[in-house]
Design brief:
Blueprint (H helix, E strand, L loop, with lengths): L39 H4 L3 H8 L4 H8 L2 H10 L11 H11 L3 E7 L4 E7 L6 E2 L6 H4 L6 E3 L12 H4 L6 E8 L5 E9 L7 H39 L2
Antiparallel strand pairs: 1-2, 1-6, 2-3, 4-5, 5-6
Length: about 240
């Protein structure tokens, strides 16, 4: 259950808070197995088990989480949607491609009715997609990495527009972006038009990249709250 955390410090300031890397948030990829469901995906051999481990197969639950009012309130507090591209998460997207060996990647933020790309590699001219189940709109609910090796045979993704449409995606792997308050804001995803398999270390690295995005968003939210508090204090002093 999410704990409700409102902005509580006035409306967002017009003063821009840059999305820059903190010196304590360096995008380095460890070789550890942190956050990879103890390797259980590799041992899953039937579709029902894969559904359970990957958080798939329950579209109603995914929609409930996606539309959760507390989650959406927190998403608005982060003030990240529709910001002009500033390159903040480009390194994360590039690392996802490098680590997973795919042609495409995204740092995706899941809104109530769309998935917006804060950064991407290999998806030129695409800034957002719909919330069709099976890809980002399902992966952000997963408990650990969400990997589908062949999208065109998996029942969760057979009818997805990015699979059956002109792009013809075949492979998808993602890790959820979860803030310190437990809110699921999106995913870091790696995609390709050919089938692939990921090693345990590749899955662990994808989880780490999502954790880095979450930490950067948390730091940015702290800065936003400080600015809002300062503006509120000034209004109180001036009576404005």
């Amino acid at each position: 259950m999410f704990q409700h955390v409102g902005c509580a410090l006035g409306s967002p300031s017009k003063r821009s808070i840059p999305l820059v890397w903190s010196s304590s948030v360096v995008p380095q990829i460890p070789k550890s197995s942190v956050g990879v469901n103890d390797g259980r995906e590799e041992d899953a051999t039937d579709m029902e088990t894969m559904y359970r481990l990957n958080g798939g197969g329950d579209d109603a639950e995914h929609e409930r989480v996606r539309r959760d009012s507390d989650r959406l309130d927190m998403l608005r507090c982060h003030d990240i949607l529709d910001r002009p591209a500033d390159g903040t998460f480009d390194d994360i997207a590039a690392l996802a491609v490098s680590v997973c060996g795919t042609a495409m990647s995204t740092v995706s933020i899941v809104d109530a009715d769309r998935v917006w790309f804060a950064a991407s590699q290999g998806l030129h001219g695409v800034s957002e997609v719909g919330v069709d189940s099976g890809l980002c709109a399902s992966a952000f609910c997963a408990h650990g990495p969400y990997v589908i090796e062949d999208l065109q045979v998996d029942p969760r993704t057979l009818s997805h527009p990015l699979v059956r449409g002109g792009l013809g995606l075949r492979f998808y792997a993602a890790a959820p972006i979860i803030t310190r308050d437990g809110h699921r804001l999106g995913v870091v995803a790696a995609l390709d038009v050919i089938t692939q398999k990921l090693t345990h270390d590749q899955r662990a690295s994808l989880v780490r990249l999502a954790s880095l995005v979450a930490r950067q968003l948390d730091l940015r939210l702290d800065a936003l709250r400080a600015v809002r508090a300062e503006r509120r204090a000034r209004r109180d002093l001036t009576g404005g």
